[in-house]
Amino acid sequence: MRFRIPAAAILAGVLLFGLSAGSPAKTRRVIPIVLSSFKFEPSLFFVNEGDTVVLQLENVATDRPHAFNSAYLSTVDVQVSGQGKQGVTTDGTKYIRLEPGEKAEVTFVAKGRGQYGFVCNLYNHAARGQTGAFVIWPAGYHLPAR
Ligand SMILES: [Cu+2]
C-alpha cells in the first residue's frame, strides 16, 4: 500500500503532464508533388489539422510551365521558397508557377478541416485534367494511405 499511492501519483502526474502538454510536437508533413503535362502526382493527399505541410513542387515538364493554384492558399499564411514565382489569378487566388525543371516548397500550417481543390491555372491545363484535391482531417485522425 505504501508504494501504490506514489506509483499512482506518478502515473497521474505523467498523464496530467501529457494532457497539459496539449499540443504534441507538430507533425511536419512533407508531400512531394510532381507537375507534368497535364497532371499532378499525387493528385490527392491527406493531412491533419495542425500539421506543418510542406508541398515540394517540381515541374518535370521540359517544354512548358505548370502551376499550383488553390483558393485555400489565401486562407493560411504561406511561405514559398525555391524557384517558384508567386502570383494571383484574376479571381484572386494564389498560385506558384514553375518553369520547366523548377522546384519550389510551399509551407503552411493546415487549418480548417475539409476538402480543398487545386488546379494548374495556366492556359487550359485544368480542363486537360491538371487538377487535384486534398483533405484536412481533424488532428490525430489516422490518415488513410495514399
Ligand atoms: Cu499546367
UniProtKB/TrEMBL annotation:
It comes from the Bacteria. Residues 10-130 form the EfeO-type cupredoxin-like domain. It holds the Pfam family Cupredoxin_1. This is EfeO-type cupredoxin-like domain-containing protein.
